[in-house]
Amino acid sequence: MSVLFALATSLLIGFADFGGGLLARRIPALTVVVASQAVTVVVLGAVVAATGAWTAADARLWYAVAAGAIGPAAMLCFYRALALGPMGVVSPLGSVGVAVPVAVGIAVGERPGLVQLAGAGVAVAGVVLAGGPELRGTPVRRGVLALTLLAALGFGAVMALISQASSTVPGLFLALCTQRLTNVAVGGGALWAASRRGAAVLPAGPEGAGARRVLLAALPALAVVGLADVAANGTYSVAAHSGPVTVAAVLASLYPVVTALTARGVLGERLRTVQAAGAGLALAGALLLAVP
């Protein structure tokens, strides 16, 4: 079951990254983060109220608060990188944050077998190759690389924190709602500060009501991105509690292959030979990781 939930995490994050990166090309990245997460607060708040999940509150909710504080910064860096650089390059490099939850798993005593270690190495190599990779270039590309690596560390920290926030289903709903509330509070504060500095917070184009109409028209897409992201956090938490964290984290990091293939199908971004080979290696690594 852990393998299935971890792979579901990859699918959900891959689609969310594609949608978020695409939206950030016409809407300020911070606005994409705040608006998409605000939708999830409404949905999760309704779930918590309907199920009485608030009774599961305990000290571990502070893990969710920490994840919620880190998340907006990581997503902002990542969406900006996706908006500035090719999705097929940025997304694979963003998966190096898997090192954080893997290190946590090893620290708590997990010892993967030789086959699983080989699978992890093959999968991570495949994910990186699936992006090109293109590490050289102009200062703009180096800036994109820096944003991506910062985002990766943030994503890894969020994965590690949210998996510790609860071990029950009601507790998970409450933890995810708490995380998203913190996301909106932190991101909303940053958005307000940005607007005070004169930074753009509405879509480029017509000012005033025209820009607001563009944002309102994008709400369905923003909702899909936000809900896919929160669902990915949920499936990862289940995967981490039902099997080795080291295996779940690596399988959950395969999402760049989904993003690259989606970009290929929707945007026509061409896959180079090395990218196709990387996708194959990532899948081979996933199979090795699934071996008991």
Automatic annotation (TrEMBL):
The chain crosses the membrane at residues 34-54, 61-82, 114-132, 144-165, 171-193, 214-232, 238-261. The keyword Aminoacyl-tRNA synthetase does not apply. SUPFAM superfamilies: Multidrug resistance efflux transporter EmrE. It comes from the Bacteria. Residues 2-130, 146-289 form the EamA domain. Coiled coil: none annotated. InterPro entries: EamA_dom, EmrE-like. Keywords: Membrane, Transmembrane, Transmembrane helix. Belongs to the EamA transporter family. This is EamA family transporter. It comes from Streptomyces tremellae.
